[in-house]
Specification:
alpha+beta, 3 domains, about 20% strand, elongated, 3-stranded antiparallel beta sheet, 20 strands, 6-stranded antiparallel beta sheet, about 40% helix
Amino acid sequence: MYLCGKKKMEHIRTDFGLLERARTCWDAASGFRADRDRNKRFTYGDQWSDLVDDGVSKVPEETLIRRQGNTPLKNNLIRRLVRNVLGVYRNRWTLPECVARDPAESVRTATMQRLMHFNIATNRMEELYSRSMEEFLIGGLVVHKKWFGSKGNRTDCWTDFVQPDRFIIDPSTRDFRGWDITLVGEIHDMSFDEICSSFCTSAEERKALRDIYRTDNGGVTQTVPFGSGERSPSFHTPANAGACRVIEIWTLEHPSRYACHDTASGRRFRVNEEDYDRIVEQENRRRILQCGKDLSLPRLIEARWRTDEEWHYHFITPDGQVIREGASPYSHGGHPYVFKAYPFIDGEIHSFVSDIIDQQKVTNRLISMYDWILRASAKGVLLFPEESLPQGVCIDDIADEWSRFNGVILFRPRAGIPLPQQVSSKCADIGITDLLNIQMKMMEDISGVNGALQGKLDSSTMSGTLYDQQTRNSLTALADIMGSFEDFMAEAIRKDASNIRQYYSPRRIEAVTGLHPGLTSDLRPSRNFFSPDLDFGWRLRNT
């Protein structure tokens, strides 16, 4: 399910060092996960959960306000701003356009573009990228996984959305493009049957996994309500009782090898240190002996020692048992993840939403304060002298009749005693309305989502040209975050293209693109329709 094909499980070894290294990386991202959770709460309306000191302990703000007899109110402006930015992105949704460096490769270029658009439709990428953009605005980190394998009854190149709170990344990375990363991975929680489907090739391997997870293959007990989310998942323990945890870890290894050049055939290849004597030395001795007394020098294999870079995958259980590992199966030689963190200055992540939380909190406090002032002011209070009460009537009867529609109140007027009267007073204007307008204007200025981008007109007489110009100007503040996300999309497209070139057979290409002149003859001879020397470029264009 997670790697192309299956291979037989070899001896299951234990690697506590790798597990501890992954846990250290996970712990280093605890601050990011806490910030993302807070940003998500504020975006979706839970805006009074920050902890405050009540003099005894830390309690949520909402609890403290309710203890004081007040009701915390909110006006969720963050959600509106996020929706506006998502609307801008939806209108700018782009499809990749394939461009070949060699103009003569127009047939292969058109074929690759059609394959890419087919893959985009298969994975429903427009919706996936839109939800990923929402995650990018809220948390500042978006992660996809590009892999080839079976999903359901279909085998294809797939894109999976990776939850950022389950993503493991090397905390020492500082490159905005992620080129200096040495460890990456994610946490999977699956049923035992899903694990067997992904890793087992025999009944013996299934038994070995059952011994590891100590499960009777019963049903999973759901402990997290649907739609409620999961806060701060643990590294070792699944949130759902009965689920089995597998930690996927990709590490950048540096094996020592010999770079070899066969001067007889011109072939270049690499040999591991342990195979050097068998493959190179013995072959060179055989060629020297075969040459005999021939004065011409034998054409030997030239070798040079070097250190390579190679990505390896490891699927490891929470108790450190590695159930599968190996070198990257992908032709690009890297890990399957594509991620983008914003802005990632000194490795720090600060999202779009985090910039406007303070203004949202001030707005909520002003609205709540305005409500408290209104409730504290007198509104329709009835002043009823006790001497005016009729005989046999209590004040509760008067209050009940006062609150009733078309009620009639009996009273006994007496000389020198004032008549019953209603008292209403206006609340004092202390400038809360002006402060609210200032905060909402500041929120628009900080976020860059101003009135023009929200479809608001400054006046009914504004010309269409001026409005269009204001809309374009308002996009300037969002150009940076939009550009970063488009860079993420471009990197994702490059990995998609690499997987398509590697795994799409001629028959698959023919089934997707159909037959047209200049293509059929190239498809049938071999699988290498997209030769490694063919250089593609990609650019995003508006639909």
